[in-house]
Amino acid sequence: MNLKRYRVNNIKEALKFIKRDLGPDALIVSTRQVKEGKGAFGMFGKKMLEVTAAPGEKKNPSVASKVTTKKALESYRGGKDSVEDTFADTFMRPQKNSALPVADQTRNIMLPIQKELQGIQLTLGDLSSQPNALDKHLVGELKNELGEMRHMIHVLASRSGNLSDPDIPENLLLLYQQMKFSGLEEKFARRLVMEAERNLNGDDLENFAYVKIFLARMLMKIIKITRGLEGVKSSQRILALLGPTGVGKTTTVVKIAAEQMRKHKRKVALISVDTNNRSSSEQLRAFAKLIKAPFSTVKEKAELNRLINSYEDYDSIIIDTEGFSQRNDEQLFEMREIFDERGRIQNSLVLSATSKDVDMIEVTRKFGCMPIDSIIFTKLDESATYGSLFNHAIRFKKPLSYLTLGQKVPEDLEVASRERLVDLLLNISGK
Ligand SMILES: Nc1nc2c(ncn2[C@@H]2O[C@H](COP(=O)(O)OP(=O)(O)OP(=O)(O)O)[C@@H](O)[C@H]2O)c(=O)[nH]1
Ligand SMILES: [Mg+2]
Q1: Mutation test of ligand 1: which of 247, 251, 255 has the most ligand atoms closer than 8 Å to its C-beta?
Q2: H or E element: which one contains 163?
């Protein structure tokens, strides 16, 4: 679809450009308020309106006809237009899978609706503050769509069997759905919106962006972080990565070692704890050679302590461990013998963001036989939603230290920040 996007001060300006570029039959596909400039979530940037438009049918017959929520509703109820072809197509490419589970079908419907509704609300706000710019027809249409969507959201909310109280302010209901569809556990999402409802007055609740920021602030208060290795008080930073097989421990050790050397100009030593002679440390050995860092493999605690003592001149010591199943009690016991002390070594549990909540709970409980100081979430790039990170953080109250977002070494590593995590859930930056 030949879409054009404009960043403008108001809708009047947008209409001028749209008419000029796409002709009188052009269709406004979406609108949203954005901030240009810097600051957390770009919160302090200049407020702009982003309008996406498509040429009208007369100009380009291949363009899909004007998409309405009515059509989306029809298709959800099994009408002749499929969601893929109409409403959702404008915003996101849904998967062509007719056998999707109900929750996924609902998500495919709800996410674009939420975005659309947010855009319409913002545009209406913008229009009403500038009565001269009103194109009466456009405003009428937007109001109709808003009404249809309100209805649809309540229908879908009641279908999903969760928070569907018609008295819940609409913006909160929308954000509740967004959080739930992002994988945040229902009871946590419910608690957040209830808290927001208690604390915000009627006017505030009418303002979608305000409500969203309010929720973001609450979430930011809940999440604990360590700022990577920077939160470690002692002058020598010793970090051990523990966790199940294949979650990305060794790759992350390499990334952190590179971060410590390059960014912080620290002297780094590497250790691999391999109690079962699996020789899984070859990747790390090669990397250590490359960066000219000392590297050794150890099997038991006394050996590890001796080695750490011999590295007293090194600023950061990063320890890789062999992965094993959380159900392998024997190996858990062996590892606990080595990493049972609190203090000198920071133990980080590595979890993949692609794991199911229930598995993360089991892993965290089992590995919790050792003192766990922080959590590293890997493979965020392979996950479509991030609610499970919050579920985990709320449930276990463990601080997050790093996030990894790909296989590239050393680039795909981020020090976990509250802003980033909340943005993953609520998409405040609109990226
Ligand atoms: N997509 C993606 N892949 C990753 C990420 N981190 C690691 N991987 C990949 O995951 C696979 C396993 O990574 P490893 O670092 O060997 O995992 P491990 O936890 O050390 O595995 P074991 O030592 O066998 O327990 C490799 O193919 C990595 O490239 C990430 O953030 N995103
Ligand atoms: Mg490994």
Answers
A1: 251
A2: none
Q: Pocket around ligand 1: residues whose beta carbon is below 6 Å from it?
A: 245-251, 280, 322-323, 378-379, 381-382, 404-407, 412
Phi, psi of 95, rounded to the nearest 5 degrees: -80, 135
Strand partners, 30: 52
Among 19-33, 94-108, 122-136, 178-192, which is the least confidently predicted range? 94-108
Reading the block at residue 361, the tokens are: 């709970």
Distance (Å, rounded) from C-alpha 169 to C-alpha 37?
Answer: 31
Compute the distance from residue 312 Cα to the ligand 2 centre, in Å: 25
| Token reading at 135 | 């194109």
pTM of the full structure: 0.68
DSSP string, 354-393: TS-HHHHHHHHHHHTTS---EEEEE-GGG-S--HHHHHHH
Give the domain ranges of the chain: 4-141, 228-415
* Complete edge-to-edge strand list for the sheet that includes strand 27-36: 4-8, 46-54, 27-36
Tell me: the pLDDT tens digits for 175-187?
988 899 899 999 8
- Multiple choice CATH, 228-415, 3.40.50.1450, 3.90.870.40, 3.20.20.70, 3.40.50.300: 3.40.50.300
Quick: pLDDT tens for 299-332. Answer: 999 999 999 999 999 999 999 999 999 999 999 9
Q: Ligand 1: which residue has its CA nearest to atom 7? A: 248
Question: What tens digit of pLDDT does each residue of 183-220 get?
Answer: 999 989 999 999 999 899 888 898 888 899 999 999 99
